[in-house]
Design a protein that fits this description.
The termini are far apart. This protein has 2 helices and no strands. Helix content is 93%, strand content 0%. It has a domain of 30 residues. By secondary structure, it is an all-alpha fold. Keywords: Membrane, Transmembrane, Transmembrane helix.
Length: 58
């Protein structure tokens, strides 16, 4: 009885580790996707920046 309880407890711990690892992975993916969005915004701003003096000269 005690052995089956321990194996069941191990299954619960493994399930918790799996859930936490999935949550941490999704947090990391969301974090990196937000960083890449910031870089894309900076890249579009830099690519349109050389056109701004031309607009003022016109």
């Amino acid at each position: 009885m005690r052995v089956s309880y321990c194996s069941g407890f191990d299954v619960v711990i493994l399930a918790l580790i799996l859930v936490y690892s999935i949550a941490i992975l999704t947090d990391i993916i969301m974090y990196f996707s937000s960083i890449t969005e910031l870089f894309e915004i900076d890249y579009t701003f830099i690519s349109t920046a050389p056109n701004i003096p031309n607009l003022f000269l016109k």
